[in-house]
Design goal:
Helices cover 30% and strands 16% of the residues. The strands form 5 sheets. It has a 5-stranded parallel beta sheet, sandwiched between helices. The protein has a two-stranded antiparallel ribbon with strand order 3-4. A two-stranded antiparallel sheet has the order 6-7. It starts with 20 loop residues before the first strand and ends with a helix.
């Protein structure tokens, strides 16, 4: 059974760990990456690999590829990608838990990046076993149980990379440097030789982040999402945490308006203005959309990030009803906020600044 949460990452003996496969989703800046960072803060660096998907990222980069190496002469060797690096560490250290962290999983073409390893995301459940995918000599001894991949893939390069190891006195393995993979290694109950297929072991979890409706991203289809637990990272201030409270109370330059107050007002306005549109969720500002420095959010940072986002993306088709009369370009919007003319205040850039002031006094729209 795949656990929905793994709040206390810890070592588990003999491949008995229960893996997590979770995609954390929510609006930009709500703290998805930070949630994973906090979850894994006590996990050693060697036990986690982090990768960011993007439109140009490929299966070869993710899994590994044959690349030339020059050392007096040119040779061609398999260079492992993050997937292969972490799966090897997990195989060779079955008493520890390992994590593959994928940031922005839908910003690249996840189906193409995973390729045939997509099949590995299905895990065996409790009481399920499988001994297929091995040569006849191994089939009798390699029985895969709960937490292992239900299916397998054949990849000679990944297989050889895993076997390129030597056993130490403490029972763990380290990579060999003599260039020759040994024929077989025995890792706990698994006999791993040249014919053993690749599966995700129970001590390897995959944690990912994604924006559900953001622009310029690939669609993560239902078949892919079905193999993960989905967890919404709520876009809210937890004022019991000092850093979050500081972020809430950070003043937007000299306006007298706290970031948390503006955040509440603008998100309520976004929801009301864009009501019914499919993109409403991801148009809202995240708690950490901009970060404070010394409990202040600089006017330039606010103008160039927040106001630009509101102008270009959020209210692209609603500008006349949101921004003050006479502001018909982004340049005018930024200039007005950074250097308000005599008798004007920064938030006069909005048509209903009085509504903002009222919201600050009594947070309802």
């Amino acid at each position: 059974m795949v656990e929905k949460k793994d709040s206390t990452p810890a070592s588990s003996p003999s491949f008995n760990s229960k893996p997590s496969q979770i995609i954390y989703y929510g609006v930009p800046g709500c703290g998805k990456s930070n949630k994973i960072r906090e979850q894994l803060k006590d996990v050693p660096e060697k036990n986690k690999v982090r990768v960011v998907f993007h439109p140009e990222y490929t299966n070869a980069e993710f899994i590994g590829q044959i690349l030339p190496k020059v050392n007096g002469h040119v040779t061609y060797e398999f260079t492992p990608g993050p997937f292969t690096q972490i799966i090897k560490r997990a195989y060779l250290n079955p008493n520890e838990h390992f994590y593959l962290v994928i940031e922005e999983i839908n910003r690249g073409n996840a189906a193409a990046i995973f390729g045939d390893t997509f099949q590995l995301l299905d895990r065996l459940k409790a009481v399920e076993t499988d001994s297929l995918g091995n040569d006849p000599a191994n089939a009798a001894v390699n029985t895969f149980t709960e937490g292992w991949s239900q299916y397998f893939v054949q990849n000679d390069d990944v297989n050889a990379y895993i076997r390129k190891a030597t056993k130490l006195d403490d029972g763990s393995y380290q990579e060999r440097n003599d260039g020759e993979p040994i024929e077989e290694i025995k890792i706990k109950e698994i006999h791993f030789n040249a014919n053993t297929a690749i599966r995700l072991p129970p001590n390897l979890s995959i944690l990912a982040t994604m924006n559900t409706s953001d622009q310029n991203v690939f669609t993560l289809d239902n078949a892919f999402q079905r193999r993960f637990d989905m967890e919404l990272v709520r876009n809210e201030f937890d004022l019991t945490k000092p850093a979050v409270k500081t972020q809430y109370e950070a003043e937007i330059d000299d306006t007298g308006i706290k970031w948390g107050q503006f955040w509440g007002w603008i998100n309520a306005k976004i929801t009301a203005t864009l009501k019914g549109l499919s993109s409403t969720e991801d148009k809202r500002l995240g708690v950490w959309f901009v970060s404070n420095v010394g409990c202040i959010i600089d006017d330039k940072v606010f103008a160039e990030k927040v106001l630009k986002f509101l102008w270009d993306d959020v209210f692209k088709f609603k500008r006349p009803q949101i921004f003050a009369d006479g502001i018909d370009t982004l340049e005018k919007l930024i200039n007005f906020f950074e250097k308000p003319s005599e008798g004007k205040e920064r938030f006069d850039v909005f048509k209903d600044k009085s509504n903002l002031v009222a919201f600050v006094a009594s947070p309802t729209l």
